Structure formats: structure tokens, C-alpha cells
Amino acid sequence: MRLAKYLAHAGAASRRAAERMIAEGRVTVGGETVTDPAVDVGPASRVALDGQPLGGPEPRVLYALHKPVGVVSTASDTHGRTTVVELVPASGLRLYPVGRLDIDSSGLILLTNDGELANKLTHPRYGVPKTYIARLAGGPIAERALAALREGVELEDGRTAPARVRRLERDRIELTISEGRNRQVRRMCQAVGHPVLELVRTGFGSLDLGDLAPGAHRLLSERELHGLRPPGL
Fold first, then answer.
1. Low-confidence residues of the chain: pLDDT under 70
2. Active site positions, annotated
3. pLDDT at 57
4. Does domain 62-124+207-228 correspond to CATH entry 3.40.50.150?
């Protein structure tokens, strides 16, 4: 196994962060500093990070969490706010949020100790779809607003890809996107004249929020994990 992948699977960091750690000379193999992330290692290679031995790959886990409003989608927070990681007891495993939901939004978010999986589930190349239900201001949602969302909306950081949209009620829509820009759904709806009042993510790839209560989580099965993986991963 490549050294960077070994660190990621050991829960030390994501693959990209592991490559930086290796380049900085923080990793040793058999007592010798190694700066090449492609070096092959195995269970007997005595890999250490900052002098601390790594015990080998952790079991890969993936959790689905219903993030409540007011919780931040990061592993830690400098302002002392509750994070999604704090809501999932992980028995010492280091978990990473997969993608983000802003503090005012709720719904389905994933947490894993598989840095490679987390990166690929959020990489634009794979276009993993995310589905949201949004309650909107601005009066009844006009057909022209729905058409604009389906065609793509011009934002300050460029035009969005076309979204799948359907009206649920006079002030509520279901919207599916395959991008992951900052506060994208809120900005798209604002751009078509309907600011978001309430936003819930109900789907991530092949997964649905279902009846998972706010603040609750569950460990995904191998079958669910397999169905969630982008092609080629």
C-alpha cells in the first residue's frame, strides 16, 4: 500500500493532508524519514507520524447523521460551537465530515474515517448528487424561477450546472445538485428571487435521510457503502 494511503487508512489524515505530512518530513518508515508518498508499506513497516507509531489501518466506517440547525459541519470549532463530530461516538476513530451544511441548514451529512472516500464523494469530478427541500420566501414560486434553476443560475463564482427541481407546495421545492459550492442552494434561490427560509438536505448520492431524527446517527452497512461509492472508487 502506498504510504499516503496507509496514513489515510490509519485515520491520521486525509490522503491530501497525509501527502503534505510526508513532504514535511514528519513520517518515518522503519526509523528512517521518508518524503515520497508513493513508497510501498505494509503492516510490518513500522510507520510513525511525528514519532508516534501508527497501528495500521483502522476499520473503515461511514455514518449518516441528521445535522440539526445550529451545529457546525466541521471536526472542530474555534468558537466552541457543537460540531457534527461530537454527535457521533466513534470509539477513538478520527472522523471527517463529508461535505458541509451551513449552520442554519439541517439534514443528511456523512462522517467517515476514510479520507480517500470523503475526498472523492465531494470532488466535482464524480458529481455525487445532493438533494434538498427548501422553503422559500418571495411569494408563490413562479414557473420561470423553476426554469431558471433547471437551466443554471449565474452566480458571482460562475454559472451553476443545471439542477433537477420540482415544486412541492406553493413555497417549497425539492432541488438536486451535483456541485458543492459554498451555500450554493441558498445563493441559487436568492438569485431567482426566492430567498431560503428553511433548508434540509434529504439525500446524498444513493442515501436518503429517511426517518432519522435531528441529532441521530446510524452506521451504514457495507451494502450502503458500496452503493454510495462513485464509479471507479
1. 56-57, 230-233
2. 102
3. 67
4. no
